[in-house]
Amino acid sequence: MSFETMRQDKWNEAYERRGNILFYPHEEIIRFINKYVRKRTGISDFSDIMPLSASEWKEFASLDIGCGIGRHMKLLDEFGLNPYGMDLSDRAIEEGKRWMRSLGKQDVADRMTVASVTELPYDDEFFNICVSHSVLDCMPRETAEKGLNEAFRVLKKKGLMYLDFYMDDAKGDFEEPVLSGFDKGTVKSYFTVKGINDFIGDKGTICECKIIRASDAAAGDMEYGCRAHVTIQKNMQ
Ligand SMILES: C[S@@+](CC[C@H](N)C(=O)[O-])C[C@H]1O[C@@H](n2cnc3c(N)ncnc32)[C@H](O)[C@@H]1O
Questions:
Q1: What pLDDT, in 10s, does the model give residues 35-65?
Q2: Which one, 33, 55, 122, 172, has least CB within 10 Å?
Q3: Of all atoms in ligand 1, which is nearest to the CA of residue 143?
Q4: Looking at domain 3-234, what is its CATH homologous superfamily?
């Protein structure tokens, strides 16, 4: 059994535990779209933010890398951003296609594909934006590096990418197996700000690196999560 098949099995198991069946978008993806791509200004009004020509907007395509059941594809579709999505888990894609069909979105269902980040089934420079929430940090760093190269390959020059990363200030850059919970058997990678900068390297320019720390004041300010939400623009070469 190849490593990729083994990982696919682990993610299929996670979806069978129903721990990752998420229907509503993450607020940082909503913010990324509204701030950098296209802002919703009314019930059916949008104002374009990316500086593209009318013909470029007509051809616009977006990609959700590791789309799960497609909650962010649904959001991208609502913004008229022609979403494609891929995920390693065939269970997730199957469920996502069923969901999109139930919404009358056969076109979105048809653009959901089973694939690995290490080999994206799309042409070079096809997408204007890529989003990927809680994906490149949910795998070994070496796989994530291949995935990032692929993401930049399929992104147009000056295109925008949203990624997020687990952080743990006390431990630095490291990866560890997940021993319990819905995603038991998978691997999580943690990054520092320097680690994120090294990871992106000269492939893109970081426009924003927003760090959100969650803590519970009712539990003595115990910190229970920290993530960096990063917006990157692909460089011209
Ligand atoms: C924590 S879930 C996030 C799902 C989705 N982005 C969301 O926000 O709902 C991580 C996802 O990454 C996918 N994944 C893990 N390794 C992958 C790989 N090598 N290639 C593509 N997808 C992968 C998993 O199948 C899973 O759907």
A1: 999 999 999 999 999 999 999 999 999 999 9
A2: 55
A3: 19
A4: Vaccinia Virus protein VP39 (3.40.50.150)
Q: How far apart are CA 48 and CA 143, in angstroms?
A: 34
Q: Ligand 1 centroid vs 131 CA: distance in angstroms?
A: 12
pTM of the model: 0.96
Domain ranges across the chain: 3-234
Joined together, the tokens standing for residue 89 give 């888990």
Count CB atoms within 10 A of the CB of residue 137. Answer: 24
User: Residue 194 — φ and ψ, nearest 5°?
Assistant: -65, -40
Distance CA 101, CA 19 (A): 22
Ligand 1 atom 4: residue of nearest CA? 68
CB 217 within 8 A of CB 152: no
For residue 5, the tally of other CB atoms under 10 A from its CB is 9
